[in-house]
Design a protein that fits this description.
117 residues; alpha+beta; Immunoglobulin-like; 2 domains; two-stranded antiparallel sheet; 1 helix
Length: 117
Protein backbone atom coordinates (compact mmCIF):
# COMPACT_ATOMS: atom_id res chain seq x y z
CA UNK A 1 0.00 0.00 0.00
CA UNK A 2 2.90 2.34 0.76
CA UNK A 3 4.36 1.72 -2.67
CA UNK A 4 0.98 2.50 -4.19
CA UNK A 5 0.82 5.84 -2.32
CA UNK A 6 4.42 6.59 -3.24
CA UNK A 7 3.73 5.89 -6.91
CA UNK A 8 0.56 8.00 -6.74
CA UNK A 9 2.48 10.85 -5.12
CA UNK A 10 5.13 10.67 -7.85
CA UNK A 11 2.42 10.71 -10.51
CA UNK A 12 0.74 13.75 -8.95
CA UNK A 13 4.09 15.52 -8.70
CA UNK A 14 4.90 14.73 -12.35
CA UNK A 15 1.48 16.03 -13.43
CA UNK A 16 2.03 19.21 -11.41
CA UNK A 17 5.34 19.81 -13.18
CA UNK A 18 3.79 19.07 -16.58
CA UNK A 19 0.78 21.30 -15.93
CA UNK A 20 3.00 24.14 -14.72
CA UNK A 21 4.86 23.98 -18.04
CA UNK A 22 1.72 24.15 -20.22
CA UNK A 23 1.37 27.97 -20.13
CA UNK A 24 5.02 28.39 -21.09
CA UNK A 25 4.77 25.89 -23.93
CA UNK A 26 1.49 27.42 -25.16
CA UNK A 27 3.03 30.90 -25.11
CA UNK A 28 6.04 29.72 -27.12
CA UNK A 29 3.85 27.89 -29.67
CA UNK A 30 1.50 30.86 -30.07
CA UNK A 31 4.42 33.28 -30.39
CA UNK A 32 6.18 31.19 -33.01
CA UNK A 33 3.12 30.63 -35.17
CA UNK A 34 1.40 33.97 -34.68
CA UNK A 35 0.95 36.13 -37.78
CA UNK A 36 1.90 39.13 -35.64
CA UNK A 37 5.51 38.06 -35.84
CA UNK A 38 5.26 38.35 -39.62
CA UNK A 39 4.39 42.05 -39.40
CA UNK A 40 7.83 42.93 -38.09
CA UNK A 41 10.46 44.78 -39.98
CA UNK A 42 10.66 44.66 -43.73
CA UNK A 43 13.70 44.83 -45.95
CA UNK A 44 11.73 46.26 -48.87
CA UNK A 45 11.86 49.91 -49.84
CA UNK A 46 9.63 52.32 -51.73
CA UNK A 47 10.44 55.16 -54.05
CA UNK A 48 7.98 57.90 -54.80
CA UNK A 49 7.87 61.51 -55.85
CA UNK A 50 6.44 64.11 -58.18
CA UNK A 51 7.42 64.66 -61.79
CA UNK A 52 7.65 68.26 -63.00
CA UNK A 53 9.01 69.85 -66.13
CA UNK A 54 11.80 72.48 -66.14
CA UNK A 55 9.24 75.23 -65.48
CA UNK A 56 8.02 73.28 -62.39
CA UNK A 57 4.68 72.41 -64.06
CA UNK A 58 3.18 69.05 -63.02
CA UNK A 59 3.56 66.23 -65.55
CA UNK A 60 0.56 63.90 -65.47
CA UNK A 61 0.41 60.48 -67.18
CA UNK A 62 4.18 60.15 -67.52
CA UNK A 63 5.73 56.69 -67.48
CA UNK A 64 8.20 56.18 -64.63
CA UNK A 65 10.56 53.20 -64.77
CA UNK A 66 12.50 52.27 -61.62
CA UNK A 67 15.39 50.13 -62.88
CA UNK A 68 17.55 48.04 -60.55
CA UNK A 69 21.21 48.67 -61.31
CA UNK A 70 23.07 45.44 -62.05
CA UNK A 71 20.03 43.41 -63.12
CA UNK A 72 18.20 46.04 -65.22
CA UNK A 73 14.91 44.73 -63.83
CA UNK A 74 12.20 47.35 -64.45
CA UNK A 75 9.42 48.34 -62.08
CA UNK A 76 6.84 50.34 -64.02
CA UNK A 77 4.64 53.13 -62.65
CA UNK A 78 2.80 56.14 -64.01
CA UNK A 79 2.19 59.59 -62.62
CA UNK A 80 -1.31 60.56 -61.56
CA UNK A 81 -3.07 63.86 -62.25
CA UNK A 82 -0.90 65.48 -59.54
CA UNK A 83 2.31 64.23 -61.16
CA UNK A 84 2.96 61.81 -58.30
CA UNK A 85 4.22 58.25 -58.70
CA UNK A 86 5.07 55.38 -56.34
CA UNK A 87 7.19 52.26 -56.71
CA UNK A 88 6.51 50.15 -53.58
CA UNK A 89 8.09 46.91 -52.34
CA UNK A 90 11.47 47.26 -54.00
CA UNK A 91 14.27 44.91 -52.96
CA UNK A 92 17.38 46.59 -51.51
CA UNK A 93 19.87 48.00 -53.95
CA UNK A 94 20.71 50.88 -56.24
CA UNK A 95 18.12 52.09 -58.76
CA UNK A 96 17.94 54.34 -61.79
CA UNK A 97 14.78 56.28 -62.64
CA UNK A 98 13.66 56.94 -66.16
CA UNK A 99 10.73 59.25 -66.86
CA UNK A 100 9.15 59.45 -70.28
CA UNK A 101 6.12 61.12 -71.79
CA UNK A 102 5.18 61.73 -75.37
CA UNK A 103 5.22 65.37 -76.27
CA UNK A 104 7.47 68.29 -75.39
CA UNK A 105 9.03 66.68 -72.30
CA UNK A 106 12.19 64.64 -72.73
CA UNK A 107 13.35 61.66 -70.69
CA UNK A 108 15.56 62.25 -67.69
CA UNK A 109 17.49 59.70 -65.64
CA UNK A 110 18.49 59.81 -61.98
CA UNK A 111 20.31 57.26 -59.83
CA UNK A 112 18.90 56.37 -56.40
CA UNK A 113 19.73 54.07 -53.54
CA UNK A 114 16.60 53.81 -51.34
CA UNK A 115 18.16 51.83 -48.49
CA UNK A 116 21.57 53.46 -48.49
CA UNK A 117 23.32 50.28 -49.62
Amino acid sequence: MNTYRGALAQLVEALDVAISRIPKVCFIVVFLFSPCTLWGQSTDASIGGRVTDPSKAIVADAKVATIKVGTNFRYQAATNESGEYAAPNLPPGAYRLEVAKEGPISSRQRSLNPLGL
